[in-house]
Write a structure and sequence with these properties.
The complex is a heterotrimer of chains A (about 425), B (about 325) and C (about 250).
Chain A: H1 9-28, H2 31-56, H3 65-83, H4 95-113, H5 118-135, H6 140-143, E1 149-150, H7 164-185, H8 189-206, H9 211-237, E2 239-240, H10 247-260, H11 267-282, H12 289-303, H13 307-318, H14 325-356, H15 358-366, E3 374-376, E4 379-381, H16 386-422
Helix pairs in contact in A: 1-7, 2-7, 2-9, 2-10, 2-11, 3-4, 3-9, 4-5, 4-9, 7-9, 8-9, 10-11, 10-12, 10-13, 11-13, 14-16
Chain B: H1 2-32, H2 39-56, H3 59-85, H4 90-112, E1 128-132, E2 135-138, H5 139-161, H6 163-173, H7 175-180, H8 185-208, H9 217-232, H10 237-255, H11 261-266, H12 271-277, H13 292-303
Antiparallel strand pairs in B: 1-2
Chain C: E1 7-18, E2 21-32, E3 36-40, H1 47-55, E4 62-67, E5 70-71, H2 77-82, E6 85-87, H3 100-111, H4 126-138, H5 154-166, E7 172-176, H6 184-197, E8 202-206, H7 210-216, E9 219-224, E10 227-232, H8 234-239, H9 241-246
Parallel strand pairs in C: 3-8, 3-9, 6-7, 7-8
Antiparallel strand pairs in C: 1-2, 1-4, 4-5, 9-10
Helix pairs in contact in C: 3-4, 3-5, 5-6
The chains are: A mainly alpha (about 425), B mainly alpha (about 325), C alpha/beta (about 250).
């Protein structure tokens, strides 16, 4: 993990392929999906930048939204100046100001935060973000008060930036460039120093390094790329307000990074992209997405501590040849059991949400207090009927009953696959 | 003058409430090395239990139910979740409690909605305890302070005068030694966690009737508790008390302070210039009263990074 | 270069108390250039505290520490290291999930000024890489260069521990119980290694194993209850009856 090797030919091929696929997406996706893809790319960059401080240097920051927001507002102010013809600045280079603002904020805040380590550091970062969150609504000139700042993208370099397609390519270019920089950082002396500080900061100090300064700089670099992500968001949305500094945004990037796996390079990007995608896709169906994200996170922390990226990486590392064939059937079983349990849980949570909503309470009052049927996904359910309960209980029961068997089968298949891999 | 006395009283009460919650947090950290991020969310659960009980079975049963239910939650979390991830390190435990806080907030929003609820004390408690300089001082504030003081007295006696207290204090310093002496360490941990959680729940049930009870309670109170911990030092009850009182006083004095930096600069003749510049300089302290704890934290980090009373690591 | 026999490290009436408890009660000591100076003493004498004071872990309560004539009392550890003093730790302090070569590379690159270098991959720093190779050879760890430091055998880890302190090219090297926890054979191996790699270097070694000290060192100081009892040539110290009394019950050297 910490041995830095040059990319293999196969890895390079996959990267080029991936970029090609990403570049082709606007040609096949609907406009709303293109917008979703933009948000997914931004979230992925945010997670990669966060993971620099966390995964590389072991600095867990609970307040990264501070730099995200600062980058966004810096970009908005610049864009406003361009829009008002006060300044001439090409739109594609706007993220540079996000980077600069993020870097400066990272140096200042980071200097304070890195005076402490470990959990103290995490708490200081949280408090700094909260400080911004409480100050911003009152600081009208910079943050636009309660309503925020809004502006318009100006055409540059033969691009109109009028629709999302141009924005998508701009975002993709910046995210790819930033990702490459973040990858390259790992191989630099400072990148190695960051890992050493995660491993044993005490020793690093006795080897002649000013670790406070070093940690501040690493944190500032992480904040810089976070600022780029914020600027990209500002360009995409053409607006922002103080809620970008909320703990929600900070928490999201933490959850997404660890679901994806903080130990691998692309894990956090993967986690962020997938979670953002689900958030978009389920926003019409349910308002409980954040609860599901939290549940997924806790389950990952308990049962898949290296995240899904770590899981995939483990497969790639330990299975060779066709050994993976042993795992196909057990994994299908896992997926089936998983879907059953998810179905039961989701039905329960969604029903609870409907039953507790004001609309339903009003319905009941209208019916004189009687327990009336409720609507979910276009169907009617009677809350008191056993059939309704069984829709939740039965899949949970079956899934739960099959769980030990599934676990056993997976373990057996793994030992078979490992044996074959060793040959 | 009345401003001073009233603000001081308010500040002390607020500080005592803060201490009720941070004491549990600091004890748990000192003993188990794990920072329970969700601790302020236990406080929130307590408030909502108080609210629900007041609507159904009454206010006082709520004050009893809250610490019990929240304490039970604490036990479950410690036994079935924290113990599982203990081997992955403290950062992992912190993250787990972070996720739990998140879930608690979302579940509460699920059950009670996104907006604050109307949790209020019973009518017969809404009177003035005394009148000071023509201002009625609410009895309930004194009640909150009183509950906090009683709890401390009980805790202090428990920790210093009983055998269980002795074991707990020993486990805070030398857990493996306590285990080697034959005491059931996991049970001690679980007990401390439960008591800490229960305390936070009680604080929530008591305070929620006075302060706004809403889904943001966890975050708002939580960040304050963390500032207490950074300023006071983890593992130090004295530090937590000092920091809590300091922050409580800071905040309550700021709320009544309708002056800004520009006014301060006016003392040296730069008032007009500052008012023209505007922005941050004309921001009155009362508007940003909520931010003052963070400013205090920054000051402490600048001059005494190990916390006011130093670190007990 | 200054002449041999000059004081490199000087401790002048050093005192250190923790809260009310005095641990170091007035230590005066001189380590001269090229000396292999051993520091012995019974448990609780304050040897680790002394090392911590010298290397900058904490500041003395009173008194002074001079490195090449300049005061380093209360100076931060990283600055002390840059001024030419390096230490190893009694409890092995490595980067367990980095390779052996990487562990050394951190030390070497810092010494070569590559602390915050951002725009070159570390693999391209040829002088650093060749120095790392030299150190690996001296420490006899070339075969293990790609292994994780955490996976090494205990004595290999101790060798790496010393190697990392050496890799910053210090003028004076402080070794904190380099053979702690080792068998006779392992100790002999490590002592031989130390002798080789510290040729012509100034050494201050804290040791518990008497045979190691009297084998390796040309000057010995005895620390008892935070004070220096006697300081001189090994034979003189060994024969001193006060030293023998202090070690009553210890295995005869």
């Amino acid at each position: 993990m910490t041995i830095v090797r040059a990319l293999t030919a196969r890895q390079l091929f996959l990267i080029v392929l991936g970029l090609a696929v990403l570049s082709a997406l606007p040609l096949v996706l609907s406009p709303s999906l293109v917008n979703a893809a933009i948000k997914m790319l931004i979230a992925a960059l945010f997670a990669l930048a966060f993971s620099l401080a966390m995964g590389q240097a072991g600095m867990l920051s609970f307040g990264h939204s501070a730099y995200y927001g600062i980058g966004a507002f810096a970009a908005l102010h610049l864009m406003k100046a361009v829009e008002g013809h006060v300044l001439a600045w090409p739109t594609p280079l706007v993220p540079l100001v996000g980077a600069t603002a993020g870097l400066l904020a990272g140096i200042v805040f980071g200097w304070f935060a890195t005076r402490r380590t470990g959990v103290y550091f995490a708490m200081v970062t949280l408090a700094l973000a909260e400080l911004l969150f409480t100050l911003a609504p009152s600081w009208n000139s910079v943050f636009g008060g309660e309503s925020g700042i809004s502006t318009m993208r100006m055409p540059s370099w033969a691009f109109s930036f009028g629709d999302d397609t141009h924005v998508y390519y701009l975002t993709l270019a910046w995210v790819a460039l930033s990702a490459w920089c973040l990858w390259a950082f790992r191989g630099t002396p400072m990148g190695r120093l960051a890992v050493a500080m995660r491993e044993n900061e005490h020793r690093v100090r006795f080897l002649g390094f000013n670790t406070h300064l070093a940690r501040t700089l690493v944190f500032a670099i992480s904040a810089m790329f976070t600022g780029v992500a914020g600027a990209l968001l500002a360009i995409a949305n053409e607006a922002s307000n103080y809620t970008i500094f909320s703990t929600q945004a900070s928490a999201n990037v933490v959850l997404q990074t660890f679901i994806g796996g903080a130990g691998t390079f692309l894990g956090p990007a993967l986690g962020a992209a997938v979670m953002t995608f689900f958030a978009r896709v389920t926003s019409d169906l349910t308002r409980s997405w954040l609860l599901y994200q939290g549940l997924i996170f806790v389950l990952v922390m308990l049962f898949v501590p290296d995240g899904f990226g770590g899981l995939i990486s483990m497969h790639v590392r330990r299975l060779h040849g066709a050994a993976i064939k042993h795992l196909v059937l057990p994994y299908l079983l896992c997926v089936a059991v998983g879907l059953l349990i998810i179905a039961g849980v989701v039905f329960m949570i969604e029903s609870a949400y409907v039953l507790l909503s004001d609309a339903y309470v009003a319905q009941r009052r209208g019916a004189g207090g009687a327990v009336v049927p409720y609507h979910l996904l276009g169907w009617k359910f009677d809350p008191l009927s056993p059939l309704t309960w069984s829709l939740s209980a039965v899949p949970l029961f079956i899934g739960g009953a099959l769980l030990p068997f599934t676990k056993r089968q997976t373990e057996l298949a793994w030992s078979r696959a490992l044996d074959e891999s060793e040959q | 003058m009345e401003f001073f006395v009233i603000s001081a009283l308010n500040g002390v009460v607020h500080g005592l409430l803060l201490f009720m919650v941070s004491a549990g947090l600091t004890l748990i950290f000192g003993m188990m090395g794990v920072l329970n991020f969700a601790h302020a969310w236990f406080y929130m659960i307590g408030a909502y239990i108080g609210f629900t009980c007041t609507r159904t079975i009454g206010f006082w049963p709520g004050l009893i139910a809250a610490p019990i239910i929240v304490g039970a939650c604490g036990v479950l979390i410690e036994r079935f979740m924290l113990r599982r991830v203990h081997r992955f390190g403290h950062a992992h435990e912190l993250l787990l409690t972070f996720g739990l806080a998140f879930i608690i907030e979302e579940v509460i929003k699920l059950f009670y909605g996104d907006f604050p609820v109307n949790y209020a004390m019973p009518e017969y408690m809404k009177f003035a305890a005394f009148t000071l300089y023509e201002i009625d001082y609410p009895f309930y504030r004194l009640f909150m302070g009183g509950v906090a003081i009683v709890i401390f007295a009980v805790l202090y006696l428990l920790l210093t005068r009983t055998r269980v207290g002795l074991i707990v204090r020993a486990a805070t310093h030398r857990p493996s030694m306590v285990e080697a002496l034959g005491h059931n360490l996991p049970v001690v941990f679980m007990g401390v966690f439960a008591v800490g959680a229960g305390l936070a729940g009680l604080a929530g049930a008591v305070a929620g009737a006075f302060f706004p009870t809403g889904p943001n309670m966890g975050v708002d109170f939580g960040t304050l508790v963390f500032v207490v911990v950074v300023v006071g030092g983890l593992g130090s009850l004295e530090g937590a008390l000092l920091a809590s009182l300091l922050i409580g006083l800071f905040m309550s004095f700021s709320v009544g302070f309708n002056k800004s930096l520009a006014d301060l600069l006016g003392l040296v003749g730069l008032g007009d210039w500052a008012h023209e510049v505007g922005g941050l300089l004309t921001l009155e302290l009362s508007t940003i009263a909520a931010s003052t704890p963070f400013l205090l934290m920054l000051l402490v980090l600048l001059f005494r990074p190990a916390g006011l009373l130093g670190d007990r690591q | 270069m200054s002449g041999a026999g000059e004081p490199v490290l000087e401790l002048r009436d050093l005192h250190k108390s923790f809260e009310e408890t005095p641990i170091i009660r007035g230590v005066t000591l001189v380590v001269r250039r090229g000396q292999r100076h051993g520091l012995i003493g019974p448990n609780g004498a304050g040897k680790s505290t002394l090392f911590n004071l010298i290397s900058g872990q904490f500041a003395p309560t009173s008194g002074d520490i001079l490195l090449n004539g300049r005061s380093i009392a209360g100076v931060s550890p990283h600055l002390i290291n840059r001024r030419g003093l390096s230490r190893s730790f009694q409890i092995t302090s490595l980067f367990p999930r980095m390779s052996v070569a990487e562990n050394l590379r951190i030390a070497v690159m810092g010494h070569h000024g590559h602390r915050f270098t951002l725009f070159r991959p570390v693999a391209n720093l040829r002088r650093v890489s060749s120095r790392v190779d030299e150190h690996l050879e001296k420490l006899r760890l070339q075969r293990r260069r790609y292994d994780m430091a955490g996976d090494l055998a205990y004595s290999e880890q101790r060798a790496l521990e010393i190697g990392m302190a050496l890799a910053t090219d210090p003028e004076i090297l402080l070794l904190d119980e380099p053979t702690s926890g080792m068998s006779r054979d392992e100790s002999a191996y490590v002592v031989e290694l130390i002798r080789e790699v510290t040729e012509r270097k100034t050494l201050l070694v804290v040791e518990h194993d008497m045979s190691v000290v009297f084998d390796l060192c040309d000057h010995v100081s005895v620390l008892v209850y935070g004070e220096i009892l006697v300081s001189g040539a090994p034979e003189t110290v060994r024969a001193d009856h006060r030293v023998q009394e202090a070690y009553l019950g210890e295995e005869a050297a």
